[in-house]
Write a structure and sequence with these properties.
Largest sheet: 6 strands, parallel
Structural class: alpha/beta
Number of helices: 10
CATH architecture of the largest domain: 3-Layer(aba) Sandwich
Strand content: 15-25%
Number of domains: 2
CATH class of the largest domain: Alpha Beta
Shape: globular
Helix content: 40-55%
Order of helices and strands: EHEHEHEHHHEHEHEEEEHEH
CATH topology of the largest domain: Rossmann fold
Strand order of the largest sheet: 1-11-8-7-5-6
Length: 280
């Protein structure tokens, strides 16, 4: 029996529709959410992501301000722009599109963003708040991963979640979020002795390691929920970290690539911007 396909695109659209209603209400009360996006250089993938974010803002009713900067901008000029956005009361969220061109210090730029406006959830203060369960902004992709599982209707509490990958952007925060949902969590990484054996124990498997089709059919517990965060280009085609064609015959539910986690990342960015405006 083939797995149920988790339609991330459809779920993201539902979230955006819910947010549009909320934003319309906020705007009539004089509190329209505002998002500033900073794009440095001419990386094609970054430009695509920024266009997608602008379209999402337009659809939901969020005011978006796009700052397009040359690749040779100085660190101080970039920091000055971030500080201008920090001081602008009409801007509730600031997103600096990564990666930055060579010669710019990403860590310093992220730390310059006001934690209250850090809708990516990358500022060390927000990372710390996430770890101790004190709220604040949550990284958008991990937030989307947990929301996808919730919307399958499967209770997370008491389940065994295995996260493959320990990046600061996805793996670690995803593990923390599932722990806060009272799951038992295992993190696998490049030094894990038998990744396949760990994965076979998972009720919920999150693959976020950046290796195309790494996760095979015999890694999956029958009926498990499989969330594929990977985006890899192979022979001109986008594929995930999970061998979808194999795994769908064993899993109970699975996200496709594309059309799974990707749309949720932008939806959760929009949600983070709205929540930042509400807090402000």
């Amino acid at each position: 029996m083939s797995a149920r396909i988790i339609d991330g695109k459809g779920i993201a659209q539902e979230i955006r529709a819910e947010l549009a209603k909320k934003v319309a209400e906020m705007t009539t009360q004089g509190n329209q959410p505002g998002l500033a996006v900073v794009l440095v250089g001419d990386d094609p993938a970054s430009a695509v992501y920024v266009r997608q974010k602008r379209r999402a803002c337009e659809e939901i009713g969020i005011r978006s301000v796009i700052h397009r900067l040359p690749a040779d901008i100085s660190q101080q000029e970039l920091l000055s722009l971030v500080e201008e956005c920090n001081q602008d009361k009409s801007i509730h969220g600031i997103l600096v599109q990564l990666p930055l061109p060579d010669g710019l210090n990403e860590e310093e730029v992220i730390e310059a963003i006001s934690p209250a406006k850090d809708v990516d959830g990358f500022h060390p203060i927000n990372v710390g708040r996430l770890q101790i369960g004190k709220g604040g902004s949550i990284p958008c992709t991990p937030a989307g991963v947990v929301e996808l599982v919730r919307r399958t209707g499967t209770p997370i509490e008491g389940k065994h979640v295995v996260v493959v990958g320990r990046s600061n952007i996805v793996g670690k925060p995803a593990a923390t979020l599932f722990l806060q949902e009272n799951a038992t969590v295992t993190i696998c990484h490049s030094r894990t002795k038998d990744v396949a054996a760990e994965c076979r124990r998972a009720d919920i498997l999150v693959a976020a390691v950046g290796r195309p089709r790494l996760v095979k059919k015999d890694w999956i517990k029958p009926g498990a929920i499989v969330i594929d965060v990977g985006i890899n280009r192979v022979d001109g085609k986008l594929v995930g970290d999970v061998d979808f064609d194999e795994v769908k015959d064993v899993a109970g539910a699975i996200t496709p690539v594309p059309g799974g986690v990707g749309p949720m990342t932008i939806a959760m960015l929009m949600k983070a911007t709205v929540e930042a405006a509400l807090r402000a």
